[in-house]
Amino acid sequence: MDREHAIIAIQEVDASPDLYLLIDFLNRTLKHKELIFGLSKASTEGKYRVTVYKTE
Amino acid sequence: MRRRLWLMFGSLFLFVVLGFCIVAVNYFMPKLTSVDPKNVQVAQYALDHSPMDHVTRVYWFTGGPLEPTVVGTDAFHKTLYVFVNGQSTVVVYQNQVITPTKASTIAQHHEGKSQVVSVVPGYVNPNTTTTFGALTSDNAVYEVTLLLPNGRYAYVYEDMYTGAVLWSFSTTLHISL
User: Fold this and answer.
1) Cα-atom radius of gyration of chain B, to the nearest Å?
2) How close B70 comes to chain A (CA, Å)?
């Protein structure tokens, strides 16, 4: 848990049951571009946060 | 004189009881703590950095660098795996990948007659220098540990999405049962 990935962008979106499909699709498609897409709960109720990381 | 004697024995008795209590607490307390603090820390990290709302289990994946995988459900009651990879988390939903049972079946088919010891979901960094980084298509893998009839252990790594066997090896240590 000590390695760090550079955060490129963060975007908050409405929580949706199918949002993970998009994140999964992006992770599988763009991994060779050294990108990881993270999905997490936002501090605002009913919102998710999408984070784009650049791996080393 | 008699009072002094009682005081001396009383003090000695209290000292012995106190010592016994200290030894007992030190011996039993670690056994009573069923939750690993490191697992709690990892579970909290997954809750804070993923859509996960409820944690059911924490695995430690040893196929690459030692990294935790947290299993749980989100607000929509869907089961998901959260791979804590560095400071980032990668989320994979159960309905996107093959089940651990299916992974076990594939591994047993690959290795022949064997007994499944464990199935651990894990994540391989796409930039890792190990063989796995080049072999896995989607980075999420199952590590299936099997006990072979000859007493050796076999480790089979499968792509979580396709079930394709990426890599396998068995230990050279013979363990008599």
Assistant:
1) 24
2) 13
